[in-house]
Amino acid sequence: MNKSDRKRLVFYIFIVFVFLYIFLVDSSNFIRKIKIKNKLKKLQADIEFLECENERIKKENENLKNNPKTWESKARELGMQKEGEKIFIFKNQEDDQSQ
To answer: Which of 28, 62, 64, 72 is at a distance of 20 to 30 A from 11, taking alpha carbons?
Structure first.
C-alpha cells in the first residue's frame, strides 16, 4: 500500500466517522429538526384553517349587522321570539315512540 492509498483510506474512514457522528451521536438534533419541521407544517395548516374560519365569521357578523332577516333568523334558531308572539313546539311521533 503506497502513501496516496493510505491517505485515501484515512480520508474515507474520516468521512465514515463524520457520518456516524451525525446520524448516531448527534441524531437527537437531526431527529428533533425533523419533528420541529413536521410541527411547523401542522401549525401552518392550523393557522390557515383559523384564518379562513375567522374570515367566515367576519362575513357572517357583517351580514348579521346589515341584514335584519339574517339576525331574525339566527335569533329564532336560538329560541327567541317577538313580543306578543307565541311559540309552538311540535314533537314527532317517531321521537315519542323511541323513548
So the answer is: 28
